[in-house]
Amino acid sequence: MAKKEAKTDLWVYELLKQANINLDPQGSSVMEIDAALKSASKKGTGKAGFPEYVGVVKDYLLIIEDKADLSRHVKLDPMGNISAEINAVIDYAVNGAVFYGKHLANNTSYKKVIAFGISGDEKRHRISPIYIDETEYYRELPEVESFITFNEDNIDEYYIREILRENTDYEKETAELLKDASALHEDLRNYGNLLDTEKPLIVSGILLALRESEYKNFSVQDLTGDTVKTDGQKIYDAISANLQRANVSPDVKKDKILNQFAFIKDTVKLNEIEPKLNETPLKYFAKFLDAKIYKSIRYINSAEDYIGRFYGEFMSYSGGDGQTLGIILTPKHITQLFCDLADLQPDDIVFDPCCGTAGFLIAAMYNMLEKAENDTQKKSIRQKQLHGIEMRPNMFAIATTNMILRGDGKSNLINDDFFKQEANKLQLKQSSVGMMNPPYSQGSKQNPDLYELSFVEHLLNSLVAGARCIVIVPQSSMTGKTKEEQILKESILKRHTLEGVITLNKDTFYGVGVMPCIAVFTSGEPHPGDKICKFINFENDGYKVAPHVGLIETESAKDRKQHLLDVWFGRMEAETKFCVQTTIEATDEWLHSFYYFNDEIPSEEDFIKTIGDYLTFEFSMVMQGRDYLFEEKNDDQFK
User: Fold this and answer.
1) Which of 15, 107, 212, 554 is most buried by its number of CB atoms within 10 A?
2) Where is pLDDT greater, at 560 or 198?
């Protein structure tokens, strides 16, 4: 047993190390805590007692008690509470953790104590956090898979969200942003009579114009409703100047973008004084964006695609799912997950051939800049290492604007049809990472080139050999139900390697009705027959739908993501209900649900419970006069 316990201790130590948390084993380097432990015997003798690990993160005291056997996780009393009986405290992980937590809360100055009862091993385990304060009050918190939410960067947010049950600053900012988006959408409808495709262009165009205010060439106060030089003309001129300042070239590219903003100066209603506002709608929109949005985008160093979020809000308020305009925007947590799965490095070259509002490229840019070692490397990332293609002129204008507002990276965006680009010429970009959210539900027998897998294959063919390629597509793409899709799957495996597929939360694209998954490939290397792929069920990703807000992050999201990455990169094993590792065939359905098998061996307690349930059922049936259900039948009775 001691050997098993030691193995569990080492596994817990590795989890702490991965989360960058430093706790002391079997004692404490903090004098106050070490003194308190000298009277912390579980038997209540007043002698010394030591949990497996104890230590301090900020002003939180963390305590860990572990057991090797899952059956020794927790023991409850007849009332359903964590038992404080001596034998339970000695023999069960959670009970021991709560005991130490209460003792240290009472005998030290630490008032915020989080105790962890842990049982099992790397593959099968339970990690139960319990919050304890100096009054000996405790609260059982949702089980976790890692300690990532308890390190210095995340523990305050966890405390606010999970223990105090209040909204974090980020959640408050998000709620405010959504509220502003709703208000702006309503104003655009009431005062602009704008098409859905024009609404995000108004937003991005005014934001570009506001950028010129930093150079004293534009001011919201300049918008006076003049009929000679209209407010729209002033905004349009500021957009043109800012595109030139941002060095958008060649001229044909700049002209394409400017053409998308021409309606701002040409739409009469936008440039007339609105009696209800006592100013033009354009000035009203500019004042709103300057106060609510512009300063946030310019001064918050975030990988988040603000304009893309506005666009998504406009689509939801318009009552559509976005597909009528050929776009399904990728949420921020997915663009960040792509960067993590690719393990982006500052020398990578990233290519997104269906870049939309440039969400993937913005996320990639910030991730690479964080790892860059000097200004020369940062300049190269912005100017040379981000490539994108967008076919729709309005989205191309928004993507370019978004990249300008986020600090360059726009120079390698082009407005074209991805399929008109030859793969061998695209390879000259030397892209080492491909990211893509292709158009959905466009393919058919008549148009097989528009299947999601067609986009995937063309992207793979466009990358250098050995590149990482990550795509988010409907799960149906991975099943290959049509003959054309089956041929595409076979063709992909002949030239490229499938690393694995991650099944996502059905609400990832909330309101769209798509069941998505992430597929990860290595380009230019034929798929070996004995290649072991990973198929992961990540439907429980820590995100949920909140009324009137949409998809929001819960307290478990960081933990769930860390667990996913640990399993994906082989730092941890997982049960088959989460991850199946197997060889594949092109005819398989490349999804976790296709390969899943239950490898969990029932415990003795499970067996006893099942037998007990059966005997209870049999007794109940007999008492109801249905004992015939259990009579043995000979073969003659079935003839």
Assistant:
1) 15
2) 560
